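Feature request disguised as a bug report, sorry. It would help if multi-protein outputs had a clear separator. Right now it looks like this:
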Amino acid sequence: MKEAVASDLADISRDLESSWNLVTTAHAASSQILCVARRTVEIRVVGTDLFPLVTRPFQHLQGREEALLSPDLIIHVWDGAATGVHVQSTVSPGVHVASSGHLATVYASPPRIDTWRRGDRDAFCYVSDHVRFPKWAHAAPFRNILSWWLNEHELTCLHSAAVGIGDGAVLLAGEGGAGKSTAALACLESGFDYIADDFCVLENGADIHIHSLYATGNLYSDSRSMLPQVAAADSVETDELKRVHYLHPSFSERLVSHLPIRCLLLPTPGDSPGITPVSAGEAMRIIAGSSAKLWPLPARGFRKGLSAIADLARRVPCYRLTRTKDLHAMVDVVRRVLSEQHQ
């Protein structure tokens, strides 16, 4: 996160908004309505080939057309190569925040800019060329814009997975490579409801809920043979070791928008599947350590996120989940833990 001169970010924001207005004088925008954490988000896209890249991960959250009357957030995004309208950034690549409330993410290669101002309903995203749309972004479009906006609504993006049964979910948290995705996708194949395998939204309240953002699943090459149903779903390769799988429509009946959290599990490699209790402080350290490094938030938002995670860790049981290659045994442990929390 970089402190930026307010006028520089304001200039970028104005450039993107005026460029969007120029684009829409010559090109019609396509629209997708979503229900995200009980709020309405509209994605407006100019660029026929760009549209599926930025909307497909949200298919399970499609909202009703009447929500168009009053969306809480509108993300305007266009394809520079398809429209001939390009934007040059006046600030260096990175995540930038200004005291004025302007926030921007500038990507150098391929060129892309996201911008939003705190309190605004409109966010803007310039994509230089859909052909060069980053492979990692296929799994999580607009992650920074949504993190900024959700944080202003007292909601926290977590680098975590979540699955559930009935009226309760477990949150699976840990650093990249801890086994969150594998555990969540194994549970999905075993009949669990699915919220996320990598990024989800925490809502603290009388009950603590976890909300879905993306209907995608990340599988490493050494896990595909163990999860054949997920491996058979449409996918895109992000690197030589990992693929992003689109879980809608293959698993549409098991993709849920939100559930209350019953407990927190921290996957850890081991020899025998099982759980061991951990302190709230240890659980918070692991969740915050994994999530905070991905937050594109100013200091105030950062503190709000840490407070939300601390509240979560204090209020639900926390365990280490021993992860083994016996996925069926691990799923049985998760099922048993959830069943015990329902009693």
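(second protein starts here, but nothing in the output says so)
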Amino acid sequence: MNCVHISFVRHHSACGAEQASRSAVCLCCFRVLLLLLNGSVCASETDGTFSVMTYNVHEYALTDRDGDGEADDPKPESECRAVVRLIAAQHPDILTVQEMGDSSVFEQFRRELLAAGLDYPYAELLQRGRMEINLAVLSRFPIVSVQHRTNEWYSIGDSKVPVARGFLDVEIQVNPQYRFRLLAAHLKSKVYSPLGQTEMRRNEARLLNKVIREILEKNPETNLLAAGDFNDDYNSVPVREVSGRRGGPMTDLRPADSVGDVWTYFWPSTDGFSRFDYIFVSDGMLKEAIREQTRIIRDPLTYQASDHRPVMAVFRAAD
């Protein structure tokens, strides 16, 4: 397991090689220009709010897409562009993503966002072995504490099973007076497992809630946000575990899109829709939530970018 805290590393494109010649010097100059010229980047600083987006970017990684047995095929460029355009249109202050590739792919993703006008100087990639479905967070604000959960295990029968993707756990200092803690998760998918995919997901959710309870037992007023792809419906046992069936209550912000739809995942095989992506907050952070600005992003690009839709919440940066 590798927990990667990175700024800029060697270039390796997940969406083609046309950006390979961009130099680090140009990138740094462009970053300075953005700070001076891009009003949208600094908008939240003027009104005392900040935004958090969670987005499953669907295999933003090098994988075996052509069936030759080699994990060397990037996400198609059209899909990558759609992902970046969707994010750039919303310009979240903090972005947590699921299904991110390795560190080189992650750095390319950051460069693409920077070219689109989004500068995230602070970032964390939680990379689990050779897996290409990693968790990551990007932030305009300093990440002041990192304590990823990478040693969580559960038992099913005689089998002892790890939480495959771990839980990303960071604290973010939004301003001198306000910080919050972010837990990001990508629970077991609905893909078949001989151990039972629902039972595996339920156990991962139970362990996520165990982390939540531990944090809130130490300080019930903690500004705590748990977000990600939980791979199940709101009334399912796994999601009820996250929300606090065993204690450590968390509130689902339950955003909707511009026409009132709440689905975040599209099933191409059945033309079905589900809500798999969530933002939960503790009582301490619920008071800061601006519910009328919290939303699911409705945009035709979502169908091209991923099988999920982004979810974004907005908060006041004051206790």
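Even a blank line would do. Unrelated, but nice: The CA atoms of residues 205 and 238 lie 5 Å apart.
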